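Same chain as my last thread, 436 residues:
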Amino acid sequence: MAGISLNGVYNHFIQDHVSKDVTQADAHRKDELRDVYKSIAKINKNSPLYLLTNDDNVRADAIDIKERARQLQSNIFNLSDQEDKSSLNHTSAFTTDEDKVIASYIGNTPSEDIGNAGFEIEVSQLASQQVNTGLMLSKDSSSILPPANYAFDVKVGEQEFEFQFSIYSADKNIDVLQKLEKLINKADIGLSAELAEGTNNRAALQISSKHTGLRPGELSQFEIYENDGELTKGAVAALGLDMVSAPACNAHFSLNGEEKTAISNHFTVGSKFDIHLSDVTEPGNSIHVGVKKDNDALMKHITSLVDNYNSFVKDTSEIHDEKFKGDKLKSEAIAIARQNLKETEALGIKLESDGAISVDTDVLKEAVTKTNDIDSLEPIKQFANSLLVLAKEISVNPMKYVDRPVVNYKNPDSKENVSSPYITSEYSGMMFNNYC
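reply #2:
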């Protein structure tokens, strides 16, 4: 019976309470887990002894508010791709000719880069793949190869592959070409094959590498040849599979006048720019790549932050349980908004009497567009930081918001108050008290 009850505990917890997703706001690294442990130990050491009532509704409310806080933390984290998750530094890269060069900003210090970072780029050659185009054969003619079992080898990089196929007496050239096309594509070895149509109902097999460029020491992306073996030879020569129609080559370009090469048309510059080349430039006509403030992303960040706060406050207001201190949680969240958003009406952000935050998007857009000083948005950043602290505290100790009678206070002057290694927190043990 004990085993059945324990299984019931796990099933109940997994189905009803455990979050279905894992986010970057969750603790993963050793230092993060250590901080969580220290927070729990500090709570146990300094808190008095409480009496927990046997109430499923209270337990469910505590777990629910913990998950809501966890989701709030995750949502704030997702608003910024900077290391500082409350950062309002939103930037984007731009080029003076996006038909030829496309850039994305991937740096971590955009405030320092706006107006300063950038370079001139000239593209003289794009990176290309290797293409082998075989002999043009009449589609409806009988196979140029006699019926037999054939084999040939393909070397891609340092790896070698053998392909085997059969030709029957009824096969025509088109049947053989289509057979090899499917065989190569299905193998998925970094090559793609297709039929190249010619005039007078003729076709050839065209084989291309999926990668571009050549690394130092490489002469080709792939080679097709025949080795000694038991199977019939002659397919490579008869079909022209080893005929290179376009060799692989690297991209050639200059950055601020300095010549560079790359094996791909997609590369990074200085760990700050993600560059994609799509065409060559006219000699002497360079393209400028720079960084600018992304006002649209900043607007979305601020409005999303407000929406997440409003949703959290609304959710806490909907918890109606006499033993759960939903009003206490709501008042703490509103106090954070009141403390940090005192002087943000000029930005179109206002704390209403019911604790919700309203945003005048027109005023906010005008303020964001005109200001070049990120310090004017510091109250919003501090607001986000304070929400993250609150969310973390709730996640560690959601039982703080449960009405619990105090059984015994700890002596504040005692030096012997230590945390119990067997009771990590009331929250972790409360789900099992019905099954002991």
